[in-house]
Amino acid sequence: MELLAEILITASLVISGIFGFVGSYGLLKLPDPMTRLHAPTKATTLGVGGVLIASMLYFIVLGDGLSFHELLITLFLFLTAPITANFIAKTQLHRNVPMDDLPKTGTGRPWATYESDEARAEAEANRNP
Amino acid sequence: MIHYALIFAFACFGLALLMNLYRIIEAPGVGDRILALDTMVVNSIALLGLYGILRGTTVYFEASMLLAMTGFISTVAYTRFLLRGDIIE
Amino acid sequence: MSPAFLAHDEKGRTMKRGATMFRKILPHPWLTLLLVVVWQMMMNSISLGNLVLGLILGLAIPIITAPYWPNRPRLANLPMIIEYTLIVLWDIVVANVVVAMTVMFKRNRDMKPAWVAIPLDIRTPEAITVLAGTITMTPGTVSSDVSACGRSLLVHCLDAPDPNAVRDEIKERYERRLKEIFE
């Protein structure tokens, strides 16, 4: 029983270390600003999840009891990592990508970051006459 | 055996922090700097957790939880400033 | 035409007499339950004192913040929620491994990043937020922007030889289930 827990803890620590490393290595290696966004936000989140699984198992084996703080940390990270990825992607769109590079929305109005405040107020007024 | 795996994980996350620091200094654009800063926050959460395992105490998870709850706000503030010119309108 | 002295909810339907009192005490029942559970997890023990304090917070916070949340989404379908959560967790683990292999071992010129525009069938802002978060968490795709009217989602793919396949898969796997959950 002890040996099984020790093997599981070691495996999760090693896997999480590899994922954390790959996440930041992708930040250096990938060529394009938008592709550079993919690697850290996902791989690093999974790496931290692995560390927290290892610590939960470790403290159960050590006898301190089940602790829910690690689950809460993983939950908060899963909630906030997409928010930061979305905001940074919008910044990249705003500064580097001209509007014609993107596919059309299929409706009358453009993507939200390209529409100015005046155009949005006008579209709202036209929609509810 | 856990001790060696801990040292390996510390080395991996430490190298990841150094790579983020390099990306902050040498960035092709401002989005890369903001992304590297946010990734440094997540790596710090992992390092605090690992240090808690090393010392055998659960008190470092409080700090990890605080960082996880509020660490993304700085990224949101930077990007809102770049997008709108103003953080709170 | 329903009588004016009976209360109406936000969609204009008439409510029964007892329902308004319930609405005033618990504006968001699921949020109350969630707050109680999360408070227990934070305090790391399930005891009567923690339960009472969690209930106080769980009642106070939704009542205080009720003016800021005028329209509640309807969450009706519990088995589908559990199925959706399990599918998302499985996708996160499996696809992260694939992206890690791509990032480490594929050469830079072999990767074909692509922009995909996905027309949406779901209308409520909460459902669109959950869909965008799920698309970002499953590796290979990052949801970047939404159109100004809320009908279309812009997604950036890391390595997509076929953009139409990505769009069809997202619509089939995630949006169909979200439509059943939220409507």
TrEMBL record, chain A:
Compositional bias segments (type: Basic and acidic residues): 117-129
Gene Ontology MF terms in the entry: sodium:proton antiporter activity
Keyword terms of this UniProt record: Membrane, Transmembrane, Transmembrane helix
Coiled coil feature spans: none
InterPro entries for the chain: PhaG_MnhG_YufB (IPR005133)
Domain of life the protein comes from: Bacteria
Keyword Nucleotide-binding: no
TM region(s), chain numbering: 6-28, 40-61, 67-89
Pfam families, per database record: PhaG_MnhG_YufB
KW Transmembrane (keyword) present: yes
Region (Disordered): 99-129
This protein's name: Na+/H+ antiporter subunit G
UniProtKB/TrEMBL annotation, chain B:
Principal place of residence: membrane
Gene Ontology CC entries for this record: plasma membrane
Segments traversing the membrane: 6-22, 34-54, 60-83
Keyword Ion transport part of the UniProt annotation: yes
GO molecular function: sodium:proton antiporter activity
Membrane-topology descriptor: Multi-pass membrane protein
UniProt entry keywords in alphabetical sequence: Antiport, Cell membrane, Ion transport, Membrane, Transmembrane, Transmembrane helix, Transport
Record's subcellular location: Cell membrane
Transmembrane found in the keyword field: yes
Family, similarity comment: Belongs to the CPA3 antiporters (TC 2.A.63) subunit F family.
Protein name, UniProt field: K+/H+ antiporter subunit F
Lineage: Bacteria, Pseudomonadati, Pseudomonadota, Alphaproteobacteria, Rhodospirillales
